[in-house]
Write a structure and sequence with these properties.
CATH architecture of the largest domain: 3 Solenoid
Number of domains: 3
Low-confidence stretches: 1-23
Distance between the termini: 115 Å
Mean pLDDT: 92
Number of strands: 46
Structural class: mainly beta
Strand content: 35-45%
CATH topology of the largest domain: Pectate Lyase C-like
Largest sheet: 23 strands, parallel
Radius of gyration: 41 Å
Number of helices: 4
């Protein structure tokens, strides 16, 4: 049997005693809330965690401390058997330390340490800590340091180190008893290693360290797990071994170091025994954003999702409280549950009109996993006229046949096929049918003499060119606009056209930007008569005249189309 497996009966008794230590006689229940002031004796209302620690340390331990929402300085507890219970909005800035007594419980708190100090510490003669449903961060130290206790347990927690040696660090120094730490459904990220354990020797070796890791994500800058027993034993005496059992977990790039002893005598061990665990791979292919210490699973982390099992008596929820009671489970502290995307829809067309394209935009839609393997892949549109369309991009255009109330509904689907709740936008469509505009004069293909000659006087006179036609619209005509283009002879692929400008004559410009000419509407006319007289001289050649209208709601175009709204004629 290995040294790590040898445990004296007195050690086993100590473990059981630490777990089941009864509450101290006359234990008090303190209520911590901001501004309550000092407490103790009959005064159970405390203004902070430090005030509660002062009161509790004066007793025999076993007290309960209920902490209300607020931000509090850290505290040191020199008695054990405490139950410290927080809730939403409970934050501690500083270090929470336990130095003595039976196992204490710390739950539902966020502990942050901005210095090179550990955020939560178990030291001295403490039997251990049960840390649950917590968020713990140290900027330059370890998130949790365990240097004492054979009954430590960390469950459903997020423990992070910015630049310390480990997120969770277990230390057994020369002459101290063995340490046992159970970690379940927890992410230990950042630092040099996610989880680090080290034993040191001297005249007496440091006690063995046992790590029981179930559904744990351990990820650091250098190692997932680092077990360093290289200084854990005297050359002859041995001791200071470290053993980790890893189940249903993720720990990449692990390292172990042991002391080989003197010619093999007095050697210790540092071992990782893994079951159903991911030990190798690219962190960027597994975690959401390891560079930013986000060690949640990616949606496409196939090496971890659905690859785990269930161990009896372990936590049935992940570090965020999401259920994982039955197999298959996901490896690590995060049970991946794809969040449905969120659909958002907006009308981009300033004035939506019936029969004309209305543009809808879903650019405001989102998917929580978009930055790490997820994202929206489908936009499913349903319109109130019964039509539907699916697009890969976030915009779509749709023409409704009738004016009045209308709506569009959007459902977005993410990369793994999860659909959002529908989002709906309502709109009111005004008349979108443009006026019908016909050209009566000139007629199509008409040849018009540029000059006429008086037979008697033989005098030549330039022909007065007058265009005219009819128009109609149920909402009334606001304006008639014409374009007059001189047609180039022969085939041409040029994108430049010759348009007539009333002020400048023929101008060459993009064919997509014709010069619009305002025609004169007859004020009193049941047929919408319009006319326009050319007041600048034109040269011989072929021309194309086009007419469109704008009604009094702003709808523009020509409902009659080119058949009645476009004519070609020639000046000869």
């Amino acid at each position: 049997m290995s040294r790590l497996g040898r445990r004296s009966s007195s050690f086993a008794v100590a473990v059981v005693a630490g777990l089941v230590a009864p509450a101290a006689a006359n234990a008090a229940t303190y209520a911590v809330s901001p501004g309550a002031g000092a407490c103790g004796g009959a005064d159970l209302a405390c203004g902070g965690l430090a005030e509660a620690a002062t009161a509790a340390n004066a007793g025999a331990g076993g007290d309960t401390i209920n902490v209300a929402a607020g931000t509090y300085p850290g505290a040191t507890f020199n008695v054990g058997g405490l139950t410290i219970h927080g809730g939403p909005g409970v934050a501690v800035r500083g270090t929470v330390e336990f130095t003595a007594g039976a196992v204490s419980k710390l739950s539902k708190v966020a502990v942050g340490q901005s210095g090179a100090v550990d955020a939560v510490r178990v030291t001295g003669t403490s039997a251990g800590i049960e840390l649950s449903d917590a968020v713990v961060l140290s900027q330059y130290g370890s998130g949790v340091l365990i240097a004492a206790g054979a009954a430590n347990r960390i469950v459903r927690s997020l423990v992070t180190s910015g630049g310390g040696p480990s997120a969770i660090r277990v230390v057994s120094t020369s002459g101290t008893p063995p340490k046992v730490v159970t970690v379940e459904s927890t992410i230990a990220g950042g630092g040099g290693s996610g989880i680090g354990a080290v034993t040191t020797g001297g005249l007496a070796a440091g006690g063995d360290i046992t790590l029981i890791l179930r559904h744990v994500t351990a990820a650091g800058a250098n190692n997932g797990i680092l077990l360093d027993a290289s200084d854990g034993a005297m050359a002859v005496l041995g001791g200071g071994s470290i053993g980790a059992t890893l189940t249903d977990s993720i720990a990449l790039n692990n390292a172990t170091r042991n002391n080989p002893g003197l010619a093999g005598i007095g050697a210790n061990s540092a071992t990782i025994d893994a079951t159903r665990s991911l030990l190798t791979g690219d962190a960027a292919a597994v975690f959401a954003n390891p560079a930013r210490l986000n060690f949640r699973l990616r949606p496409d982390a196939v090496a971890a999702i659905g690859q785990g099992g269930v161990t009896a008596d372990e936590s049935t929820a992940d570090f965020e409280g999401e259920e994982r009671a039955t197999a298959p489970t996901d490896l690590g502290g995060d049970e991946y549950n794809n969040a449905p995307p969120v659909a958002k829809i907006a009308v981009k067309t300033a004035t939506p009109r019936a029969t004309q394209a209305v543009t809808f935009d879903a650019g405001g839609s989102s998917d929580r996993e978009a930055g790490y393997g997820g994202g929206i892949t489908q936009y499913q549109w349903t319109f109130s006229d019964g039509k539907a369309e699916t697009t890969a991009g976030p915009t779509v255009s749709h023409a409704f046949p009738k004016e009045g109330d209308a709506s569009a509904q959007l459902v977005v689907v993410d990369r793994v096929g999860v659909a959002s709740a529908p989002a709906t936008v309502a709109l009111k469509l005004i008349d979108g049918t443009p006026p019908t505009v016909g050209i009566v004069k000139p007629t199509n293909n008409q040849k018009i003499k540029l000059f006429t000659t008086n037979k008697k006087t033989k005098k030549r006179t330039r022909t007065k060119l007058v265009f005219g036609g009819l128009s109609r619209d149920a909402n009334g005509i606001a304006q008639i606009a014409l374009t007059l283009e001189k047609i180039k002879s022969g085939a041409s692929k040029s994108k430049r056209c010759n348009f007539f400008d009333p002020k400048q004559g023929i101008r060459v410009r993009s064919c997509q930007r014709p010069v619009l000419i305002a025609a004169r509407l007859k004020k009193v006319s049941t047929t919408g008569e319009w006319s326009y007289t050319i007041k600048r001289n034109l040269t011989r050649g072929s021309y194309k005249l086009s007419a469109v209208g704008v009604d009094k709601t702003g709808a523009s175009g020509n409902a009659g189309g080119a058949k009645i709204g476009v004519v070609k004629f020639k000046l000869i």
